[in-house]
């Protein structure tokens, strides 16, 4: 299904500074990172170590960036990383990360050192956007000399502390606005032709093709199916254009594409995707699915 012409730019021509400024001027604040996210993080200081790892200084606001860590970091335990809000508009990724911290992180700290970055892209959270103010996708920018401050900030933090991880799980959503807004905007920005994909109805994961982990992905899927439904493939046996590797699982090349899933060298990596626009899933179920995904991943790691 092909999308209508995007209202900014000239078809076939990549955006320059003028078009990017035009796009930025059209963005509006729709919710508050400080009210929705920082207020919850501020309630965690008694139970967890909360650390500001950077700040994004944008004309609209300065956004502090936070990591939450379980107490009594023990070098004899493996480290695990949970990230949310790399795409700020993907609400359950942010609130799923926060819910996991509050409800389960202390329990799992018996076996793991847990680090959570609940909202990597706060400007995107506030404006319900995939990009940052410079029309850059943070989830294609986890690479050397990153053009996205969101990606660079957490990359720098992890490099400074020389942290290694057994697992990294990155919490995302696939929404109807991927077809109505974000993919058309991407094609317009790059001067390419957009062809929409089928939006999968249900939960799925994106594993790293550079280090596939079939049993690990299966554990996540099995945990989430207790909370919400797993996305079936389309008529071509694909999800978002990628072939099915196993039920509810596709693969992308994490580091090659600059994805957040390639942020570390963890042997166990997964990107979760829930579908908040489904008639069969509430916002609460989407958050619960993100929490179930993290729990399923950790339960699997306790057995390896």
TrEMBL record:
Needed co-factor(s): Zn(2+)
Keywords: Hydrolase, Metal-binding, Zinc
Protein's GO biological process: proteolysis
Taxonomy, superkingdom: Bacteria
Cross-referenced CDD domains: M14_REP34-like
Parts forming coiled coils: none
InterPro entries named among the record's database cross-references: AstE_AspA_cat (IPR055438), Peptidase_M14 (IPR000834)
One MF annotation (Gene Ontology) recorded for this entry: zinc ion binding
Domain Peptidase M14 span(s) in chain numbering: 29-286
Spans through the membrane: none
Family designation: Belongs to the peptidase M14 family.
Protein name in UniProt: Peptidase
């Amino acid at each position: 299904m092909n999308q209508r012409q995007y209202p900014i730019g000239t078809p076939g021509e990549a955006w320059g500074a003028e078009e990017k400024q035009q796009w930025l001027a059209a963005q509006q604040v729709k919710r508050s990172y400080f009210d929705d996210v920082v207020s919850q993080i501020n309630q965690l200081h008694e139970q967890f170590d909360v650390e500001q790892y950077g700040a994004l200084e944008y004309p609209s606001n300065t956004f502090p960036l936070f990591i939450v860590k379980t107490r009594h970091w023990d070098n004899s335990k493996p480290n695990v990383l949970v990230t949310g809000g790399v795409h700020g508009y993907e609400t359950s990724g942010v609130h799923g990360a926060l819910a996991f911290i509050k409800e389960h992180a202390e329990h799992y700290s018996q076996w793991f050192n847990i680090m959570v970055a609940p909202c990597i892209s706060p400007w995107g959270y506030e404006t319900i956007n995939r990009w940052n103010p410079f029309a850059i996708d943070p989830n294609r920018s986890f690479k050397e000399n990153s053009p996205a401050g969101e990606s660079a900030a957490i990359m720098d933090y992890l490099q400074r502390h020389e942290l290694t991880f057994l697992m990294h799980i990155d919490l995302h959503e696939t929404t109807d606005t991927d077809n109505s807004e974000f993919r058309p905007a991407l094609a317009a920005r790059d001067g390419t032709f957009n062809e929409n994909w089928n939006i999968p109805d249900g939960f799925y994961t994106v594993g790293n093709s550079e280090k596939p982990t079939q049993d690990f992905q299966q554990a996540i899927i099995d945990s989430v199916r207790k909370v919400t439904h797993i996305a079936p493939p389309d008529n071509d046996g694909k999800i978002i254009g990628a072939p099915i590797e196993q039920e509810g699982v596709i693969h992308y090349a994490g580091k090659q594409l600059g994805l957040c899933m390639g942020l570390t060298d963890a042997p166990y990596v997964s990107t979760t995707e829930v579908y908040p626009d489904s008639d069969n899933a509430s916002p609460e179920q989407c958050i619960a699915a993100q929490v179930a995904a993290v729990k399923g991943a950790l339960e699997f790691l306790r057995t390896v």
